[in-house]
Amino acid sequence: MELTDRQKQILRAIVDIYVSTAEPVGSKAIAALPDVSCSSATIRNEMAELTQIGLLEQPHTSAGRVPSPAGYRLYIDELMQDYRLSLDETRSLNEALELKSQEFDKMMSQVGKLVSKMTDLPAYTVATRRSEAVAKHFDLIMAGPGSIILVLMLSDDQVKNKLIKLPVSVSESDLKLLAAVLNASLTDLTAEEITGELLEKITRSAGAASPLAPLVMDFTLECLRQQHGDVHLTGQMRLLGQPEYKDAAKAQEVFETLDEELISNLPAVLPKDGPVQFLVGPENVAKELKDTSVVMMRFDIGEGMQGTIGVVGPTRMDYAKITAKLGYFAENLGKMFQKGGAATPPALTEGTEASDK
Amino acid sequence: MELTDRQKQILRAIVDIYVSTAEPVGSKAIAALPDVSCSSATIRNEMAELTQIGLLEQPHTSAGRVPSPAGYRLYIDELMQDYRLSLDETRSLNEALELKSQEFDKMMSQVGKLVSKMTDLPAYTVATRRSEAVAKHFDLIMAGPGSIILVLMLSDDQVKNKLIKLPVSVSESDLKLLAAVLNASLTDLTAEEITGELLEKITRSAGAASPLAPLVMDFTLECLRQQHGDVHLTGQMRLLGQPEYKDAAKAQEVFETLDEELISNLPAVLPKDGPVQFLVGPENVAKELKDTSVVMMRFDIGEGMQGTIGVVGPTRMDYAKITAKLGYFAENLGKMFQKGGAATPPALTEGTEASDK
DNA sequence: TATTGGCACTCAGAAGGAAAGAGTGCTAAG
DNA sequence: CTTAGCACTCTTTCCTTCTGAGTGCCAATA
């Protein structure tokens, strides 16, 4: 059944108002809007019908209306108007984007903090592997007597290192030999293909550096098996600023699920069809989060990696604004990462002033 | 003025009870304790005196007593009985300590998570430099056409790496040359001693790899200037489990200060005199945290580094238990790090059963 | 037929007590 | 010096009442 234009307008208005006030919206409030030209009674009739269809809900008989999950869904899919970032906002996003060039993981964590700050909601970032990783290059560096640095480059351009301390000292040439062996026999293999047998073979060929071999193998396996980078979740406390979580118990429940649950489950529901994905209330991963929603967006990082940034908030959140901000981040982060990590913020692009508020 | 034994006993009892109930303690509750042999009236008299001296407080005339900050201080300094970890607790701490051997920073973050989980309170970790860091060793690894991995080892045994992508490709021998130049002229220098002049000199001697030189220098400076490792703060939400923060607004206030304030200020108040330090309520860094306390403990990590783990909680927290747990962590982490990062939990040491409850 | 003003009705939340209960301080007796 | 007893204080809790926002429906209107 199709909604009439007026019904759409009313639904949109209700979501918009509810998003900013967090209070059920009454018919009078709608009628008072400048671009609504009918009386509150008419609105009431329409609202009754929208409630009937299941797009609105009534906390109790004598309260205003609140969008139902289905209502939000419809709003997001069809009614939501693009939020245009104001110049001011663009500017502060740009400022924020001046990331210190750093190690990959730190950068991701920093991005999470930024997004959280900019949206005033909890945010997370994950880097996911698009394909199975293999080792591309090994290097062993002598760092002191008995101290060896293992540097491992993966097919997705991540670089990992580990400082290994041995009770015995190994000569520079032994290290070279082992590195050569590793590069010859351990590269381009997936985690499954690395067997105990192979380890033995390598240890045998490693000569004096053989005690190193198992340590290197372990570390390599560990790196290869890491399906996705660490989940960085920050700004949880910002959720407390939202009226629906003013009861600490409620907030805690969400947090408890969020921490663990998110880490294990969210990457699985990564957007496949589009760059942005909304998980509205009950669509969410865990039933504890039924009043909580997630907006997530992915962006491309170098070779085999793909990043996701997400924002967690009450189902009543400003999807349009958040999407706009996430989009800005995603776009520019993608560019930055692809340039190879040199973090220069994009040129300030002029845009018509936004319709904030 | 010295306290009588009985007064001490009463103060201790009040702290102990208040710690576990979070409710003001009445004279009756004390009198009912098995090892107290006088009546509630006597207790009342003593309590009145303790209140007089300023060791106890009364939320209102007809309520029981609560320890004042000074009371907590005295308790911690003189009255607190060592908490002995139960075998069960030791066991689960040991299990927790089976850290995945990983990069240094991740390990610290993991430690924070563990401590938070084990104490059920927010926790943080920082690694602080004991002395000024210098670069000890540079290495440049060819990772592909135009892709170079810079590996930098610092005097405090930290290893940093960065993947640099250049639009032009550089030959293996050019890299070797630059690495040699770097090792010859950039090692053992503090951040201040690295000047623009030096950069020019290096760039000149770098030959074909010269475009790399400034990037390397920047990264090096960044690493050297990092006074302390990242602050890893986790488990903030656990604070919500504490009754004093059941009001979300209160909790949020603490969180807001905690995040930023902690990062910048806590390392400054690092324990200098002993391994463990208590910041009780108003002694704290920020006035917003006046009802919040911090227990922190340091431990030694390799060469020039020193780690701090801390727990944040209501002033009414179980200092003895938390100290015991932190101590266990600190001790074993120290050992682990000094062994060079191979994370083996310590042998399970037998201990008399603890007086938990 | 669609809209509108009007009106009775509902119900959550605020406001105002009253009663209960925990704990104190003080006094007088042991 | 200790203790039982008692009057007193204040918070907390539980009602009850009241208020007001918002609805649904109906009859009048364009």
Topology:
2 copies of one chain form a homodimer.
Chain A: H1 5-21, H2 27-31, H3 40-53, E1 56-57, E2 66-67, H4 69-79, H5 87-96, H6 104-119, E3 123-129, E4 135-144, E5 147-154, E6 159-165, H7 172-185, H8 196-205, H9 212-225, E7 232-234, H10 248-265, E8 276-279, E9 292-300, E10 305-314, H11 319-338
Chain A binds a DNA duplex (30 and 30 nucleotides) through residues 24, 26-28, 38-42, 44-45, 47-48, 58-64.
Largest interface: A-B, 45 and 46 residues
Helix count of chain A equals 11
CATH superfamily of the largest domain in chain A, called what?
Answer: GAF domain
Class derived from helix and strand content of chain A: alpha+beta
Biggest sheet of chain A, in brief?
5 strands, antiparallel
Which CATH top level class of the largest domain in chain A fits?
Alpha Beta
Helix share bin of chain A: 40-55%
Query: What is the third-level CATH name, the topology of the largest domain in chain A?
Result: Beta-Lactamase
Roughly how many Å is the radius of gyration of chain A?
Answer: 26 Å
Shape of chain A: elongated
In total, how many domains does the architecture of chain A comprise?
3
Give the N-terminus to C-terminus distance of chain A in angstroms.
32 Å
SSE order of chain A, as H and E?
HHHEEHHHEEEEHHHEHEEEH
Lateral arrangement of strands in the main beta sheet of chain A: 7-3-10-9-8
CATH architecture verdict of the largest domain in chain A: 2-Layer Sandwich
Portion of residues in beta strands of chain A equals: 15-25%
Number of strands of chain A: 10
